[in-house]
Amino acid sequence: MSFFPNSKVNSRQRYQPNLVSLMTLCANNYNLLLKLQANKTQRHQQRDFFINDRLAYVIVVKEVTPYTSLLTFEQKTPTQQLSKHSYHPRMSIRLYHDARMAEVISSQGIQQVKPRYDYPNKHMHQQDEKQQINQFLNEWLQLCLAHGQVKVELKNCQ
Predict the structure, then answer these.
(1) Tens digit of pLDDT for each residue in 93-122?
(2) Contact (CB, 8 A) for 64 and 41
(3) Low-confidence ranges of the chain (pLDDT < 50)
(4) Which of 51, 103, 116, 152 could, after both became Cys, cross-link 55 (CB 3.0–4.6 A)?
């Protein structure tokens, strides 16, 4: 109950995810991931991207089925600069090949990212946590495409 009878302080509207925006973002992430993976689509294959001497990313294929793939995408730093206070973001991504979408399914201790969280909540997730995590993935993918360097093996043509 509010002290002000006509105020709208306590009459918050419940957050509704924007499904069109989320699906567009997931479709864009799918296309970006396919570009980044190149031919590394088999189980246990990985692709490393080096942005600079302090920042690198690695994509590892964990699971492949006829209609989906499961990847992990993780930020890495060189071993000589590791400390106990280092933060290494990591996320698991499910690729849905029939729908041509990629969705973050877990990230930083969140085992299953829900489309909506009540706010406040005990873990202090944002109401639109799923949208934000997928947007974060999109920014990582854009960074790797724009500035990432990949070690390529050249075959001897003799």
Answers:
(1) 999 999 999 999 988 766 777 666 666 767
(2) yes
(3) 1-4, 10
(4) 51
